[in-house]
Amino acid sequence: MKPSSRELWASLLPTGGAALALAVAAQVQALGDVELLGGSWADFGGAGWLAALFLAGVAGAFHRPFGATTLGLGAALVASAVLRFGVAPAAGLAAAALLAGEIGWRSARSAGAVPLPERRHLLRVVEAAGVTALAVLAAGAAWAVLPRARAGVGLPWRLAAAAAAYLVAWTALDFALRKLRRPEHTFRPLALAPLAADLVGWIAGAGLALAGTLAGWPVASVVLATFALLALEAGRNGVLLDKSRRRARDLERLRRAGQRMTTPAQEMAGVAERIHAECKVVPFHYFQLETLTPGSEFRSWWAGPGGELRAGVPEPERHAPALPGFHRRSAWQILERQLRVDGKVMGRLRLWCDPRRLEPESVVLLDRLVPQMNASMRRCVLDREAREDPLTGAATRRVLEKRMHEVHARAMDEGGTMAVVLCDLDRFKRLNDTFGHPAGDAALVAVAKVLKEECRDTHLCCRYGGEEFVLLLDRTGGVAALAIADSLRRRVEELDLVLPDGQPLALTLSAGVASFPELFIRTAAELILFADEALYEAKRQGRNRCLLDLGQGRYLDPQGTVHASEEAPPALVPPRIFA
Q1: 146 with 116: CB under 8 angstroms?
Q2: Which of 263, 406, 477, 543 has the greatest number of C-beta atoms within 10 Å?
Q3: Taking Cα atoms as reference points, which of 535, 504, 261, 515 lies closest to residue 425?
Q4: H helices of 293-396, where?
């Protein structure tokens, strides 16, 4: 994306200002006389020490605990560079180290099977290098001016003043550039968080400079090498951690996007109530249970001192409540246990306990009850797996057969009614072949959602197989069931599905309806056979329609018209009576 004019000016001004300031600083004797600054480079190292400081600065700048483009731990090179070479070379060295560290950091992030995106423009990197050079020049100026302002100032005070000047200059420049980009910008203390790493770098650099002046620069070289290796390893671990977090977030989004089996809140709430009762062997003040079943979101239930279980997350006070008498209020002791199903973590239990009242025997008893809690989680998960289709969340065929038998037996005993609606997505195979199975799965999930919304407590939606669904409607006659089926057909036709590539996906539905006692059946399963015949006739008549089986090959449509199939016997003719 092309940067705006404000963005361009905000990036080029510190770069041009740094180049001009470096040229001026190189001509100022107070900033280049290493003897006056407190150091000398003739006794050790020379160009080799310059290269060592540069590599150490690159290693420090490679570590980005806050993800911001600052010198970070690389600021440790500044003090030694000023003592050895002067202020202007130290500023140029710091800017070069930041650029090299940024390049290395970007290269490390982009390496791997799944490269991570880099959204920051290269102009920002050049801008950060210019800000670094200006901040180091400000630090060097404070370093050089302080002895003249106050005689007898030692090296530690010079280092402290230089670090303060560096941080103040960086903060002021960063705020000015943000203000230039967005005039409405206000100062935010959180923007100073990345400078914490720079402060640590200055502290490390002060130790390195003091080691060089007191114990000799050969000793300082060993300290510098150790610091560089540690900073490089910390930076590498930071990059790997960043990659892991990003991939974990991507996997979490994919997990949430998948339409898999979920456990209803009311079922898991029942499990939470049982576990809450089992945990009363421990004197706790707050209870929390987080549950996760395959394909679902985390759910949390908690209970406070009142004992009422509710959905949400507890917010206990910082300390346990006061006890009678003189007692010091202590922090909570949190007992946390993981609940597993087949080796997978499906729940997490937390108990906030007062350590003054917690006995070791009760904790042992709680641990003995954990297998029982795992069994409760397992029963809930297995029961859900047996009753629901993992893709659509509709009931399984086994549940339908059992429920149909119960409804039919009740209708026979009480003289009630029942109906079955057999639904089928039109041209589903063509949809799969054209757009792929993910599109087919998305269509099934969308249609199942429409069908399940129609089901009340006495109704049931089942995925019968493939693209077929069955609605079992208790205490519903044939004409009413046909009206429901036609309403669902229209809702499916109005679905606004869009594929990932932006292409709309149109769906239509055909349905066959059969009801009892309008049709004579001996078993509940025979009602699905009649509904299947009505569905076949709806497909034969052109799809995207609903028909009610009246028996004898005759079908009723929602408009009240009776259709006869080709196999239907001729209608009965009333007999004529002759005199």
Answers
A1: no
A2: 263
A3: 535
A4: 360-387
Exposed/middle/buried for 489, CB within 10 Å: 0-12, 13-18, 19+? buried
Residue with token string 């209708």: 411
Q: Would you call 287 helix, strand, or coil by DSSP?
A: strand
114 pLDDT higher than 70? no
Residue 253 confidence (pLDDT): 42
Q: Which two tokens stand for residue 509?
A: 């539905």
CA proximity to 2, closest of 154, 158, 121, 83: 121
Q: Collapsing DSSP states into helix, strand and coil, what is residue 495?
A: coil
Answer yes or no: are the C-beta atoms of 128 and 98 closer than 8 Å.
Answer: yes
CB 474 within 8 A of CB 458: yes
CA distance 183 to 528: 70
Taking CA 109 as the corner, what is the angle to CA 107 and CA 113, rounded to the nearest 5 degrees? 105
Tell me the residue type at 560.
G
Contact criterion met (CB below 8 Å) for 470 and 455 = no
Structure token pair of residue 79: 């003090």
How far apart (Å, rounded) are the C-alpha atoms in residues 120 and 111?
A: 17
Peptide bond into 570 cis (omega under 30): no
Question: Does residue 329 contact residue 322 with C-beta atoms inside 8 Å?
Answer: yes
Which token pair is 352?
């906030």
Helix (H, G, I), strand (E, B) or coil at 551: strand
Average pLDDT, integer, range 544-556: 92
Tokens of 258: 């998948």
pLDDT confidence tier of residue 128, bands split at 50, 70 and 90:
confident
Take residue 183 and report the two structure tokens written for it. Answer: 């005039």
E strand intervals along 209-265: none
| Digit-coded pLDDT (tens) for 67-83 | 677 777 777 777 777 77
Q: Is the separation of the CB atoms in 531 and 422 below 8 Å?
A: yes
| Most confident segment among 30-44, 153-167, 214-228, 469-483 | 469-483
Average pLDDT, the chain: 78
E strand intervals along 34-168 = none
